[in-house]
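Hi there. Long-time user, first ticket. I'm pasting a complex I've been working with (about 740 residues overall). I'd like to know whether the download I got is complete or cut off, because the file seemed smaller than I expected. Thanks.
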Amino acid sequence: MQTIRVDTPSARYDVFAGSGLLETLAPRIERVVGRLPRRVFVVTSPEIWALWGHCLQQTFAEAPVVLFLPAGEKHKTMASVEKLARQMALAGADRGSLLIAFGGGIVGDVGGFLAAIYMRGIAYVQAPTTFLAQVDSSVGGKTGVNLAEGKNLVGSFHHPLAVFADIGVLGTLPDRELRAGLMESVKAGIVRDRALVRFLEEHANEVQGRDAKALEKVIAASIRMKAGVVSLDERESGLRMILNLGHTLGHALEAATRYKALLHGEAVGWGMVAALWLGRKRGTITARQMERLERLIDRYGPLPPVKLSAKRLVAASGSDKKHVGGVKRFVLPVGIGDAGVVEDVTPEELLGAAEYMLGRAGEAASQRVS
Amino acid sequence: MQTIRVDTPSARYDVFAGSGLLETLAPRIERVVGRLPRRVFVVTSPEIWALWGHCLQQTFAEAPVVLFLPAGEKHKTMASVEKLARQMALAGADRGSLLIAFGGGIVGDVGGFLAAIYMRGIAYVQAPTTFLAQVDSSVGGKTGVNLAEGKNLVGSFHHPLAVFADIGVLGTLPDRELRAGLMESVKAGIVRDRALVRFLEEHANEVQGRDAKALEKVIAASIRMKAGVVSLDERESGLRMILNLGHTLGHALEAATRYKALLHGEAVGWGMVAALWLGRKRGTITARQMERLERLIDRYGPLPPVKLSAKRLVAASGSDKKHVGGVKRFVLPVGIGDAGVVEDVTPEELLGAAEYMLGRAGEAASQRVS
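Hi, the file is complete. Here it is re-exported in full:
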């Protein structure tokens, strides 16, 4: 097991990554909070609960109250949060209650937001069950839900008391989800961790074969990268922006395909391809570095093919939350292991990046047909 | 005009109380935020906007986007917040946008919560238009909405950048609302400000006659009391509890009459009568002090009569948010100008306090009949 400290102006907590955490969850939480409160709530999905609920539950002397959030992005809504909050109120949740968000990214985002606003904020821990949630969404305190107008448009910054990333639960994760999640680790390496890039290159077989030691290494390194960035810039006023490498066009891609064709990590993968192109054009990476990183993305793919017009994609990128005062921000790789944010991307450059990316995504499509 | 500083670990801002603030709102906000952002949003009620919208709007070079929240507690919901958030997204609100909550307590609570969660938090100012909102709800950063299971069960702590309490707008406030709001000033005096109690006793005619100087004095003193308490205990872990004098049974009274018979301040007025009885019983106030404070409450009444059984009332008090881990907290006056929190109130005492209060409230009813 590895322990990674997150240390921001408003919170300090540990992320634990390793095997067997779930089997010992209650005592582990107790070690963090002192004594378990009278009421413990678990927000989870029916699928995860069916697979792993017993394992979690048997660690508690008194069974926690289980609240279900149906799977799927379409349930990441204010209405779901209200429904869960009402169930908590009916079950007697008070300010001293503890919530455990036990599931993938959506459960973490919704559960965290629920904890953020229930009685103006109660304590919670994250127990992420997907690779993506473990390396990305469970760390950093971002919580929230979608509006019809866009993803994550309402939410809170609300840090958990601890994060327990159990590598064992990844055993039941579908292969496609693991691959998509690994794109965030690829991103982590590109923006901040040259050694992680090398490890991912050299141990692709072990990682994709779910070797526990290799996974723990990748997950811990990815979390360490994110924890470091979040500790330096909790509110995303500067540095934290680099975590959005691949997200400008990645989000647009998800939106333009109505969140149906691609998993988030896959969209970010394609978005990184676009960012590499723009980085090359701006000279922040060399042709060799671009080639090397594209090969890495391919190695952890294949990313699903997409057919779309570049113009439509660029239009879809307009409502991205990261644009303050209408400025279009774009994260570019700087060499390997560093990144920077530019604000002066022209519409032509954006179109060029989209065309390059969609060209590659189209190739993927035609390869699949042939 | 008086300026009162709120200074908490997470925020520092000024509350301005005086006449003519609305007529100069935009430049005043500018003085606080530096430069007005590209998009300014106003959340308000149709009634307030009809009366005072022009006055506010003409201070802005570029007209702000106006979002309406219909009047009434029944609109203080997650659904309203979501609707307003969607309107903001459609109008292009981003993280740099500014929101003005312009109305009574409900507009302030909903508008503040909207600002707290829109894109995980944007800047806002409070421009409260009722006495109650000016002296109480606009100061301290508490925001939120109701669930079917109880009031203010979801929300955030989110401080405004500034509060502008314009005494001029109270000119159109219905008399009953002014009286109800004054109960919070009576409370402020009882728990923390002996001089305010005296001022309220000696200048009741001027205050109730809406003399601007008298009102400014009462409002500023009430805000100063609250700002002081909030600065010492932002998250209501201790001292801030004393602001809940009269609220345990006051909330129960509102709930038992389904928020229809009484305004919040009126319910708090009755709740304070119950708290005085319990304070007398516990010996935290003398018989003379009890009599004096009851006279003061009566002077700023009359509180509307209520007919209810004490048992039903006590049952309704069970779901109060302030009870952590099932402990029943109760705020008691300590002499005049001080208060304390007790946690060992017995069911019998609670029933006794409810019976005393309802007896007085019943007397009021029979007096009205005869």
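A couple of notes from our side: Chain B touches chain A through 38 residues (CB under 8 Å). Chain B has a mean pLDDT of 93.
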